[in-house]
Amino acid sequence: MGFDERAGYFPAMDERELSLAVVGITHPNADKARSNRRFELALCVPGEPIDLRPEPKNPHDAHAVAVFSVRGTQLGYLTAERAPWIGGKIKAGEEYQAIFQEAGATSAVIRLRFGGGAPALPPRRDPPGPPDDFEPDPDGPEWGA
């Protein structure tokens, strides 16, 4: 099951699904235990449930949507560009399911589906390697080594 070039999407995925960045993973949580977001992120497994919680009383952004792991520990927030739209749909009672997709160096990615049903994880991307014509520069006196 690969990318369908004629349709322009992966067949197992649905247009009601989207991948969203989770930011703020380097900040400590404000709970009494000062739980560590990076540590919690390391425990997350692709496909496990994620909870989204709008925070209308957030002092920095009334549209903020916090992202919590299945263990109830905050991982971060949806980006400021996406939070108003996602938070609005959640507040309006639209049914959704979210799952953990992957971790990155400075953010994480979750998969969200509106309208019922479980979201599908997209195929894993391998990190890009060096180009086929890559040749490292030689070390030597011309470089002042």
TrEMBL record:
Claim: Hydrolase is one of the keywords in the record: yes
Domain of life: Bacteria
Keyword Metal-binding: yes
Annotated source species: Sphingomonas rustica
Residues in HIRAN domain copies: 44-88
Pfam families recorded: HIRAN
Keyword annotations from UniProtKB, A to Z: Hydrolase, Metal-binding
Record protein name field: HIRAN domain-containing protein
Species lineage: Bacteria, Pseudomonadati, Pseudomonadota, Alphaproteobacteria, Sphingomonadales
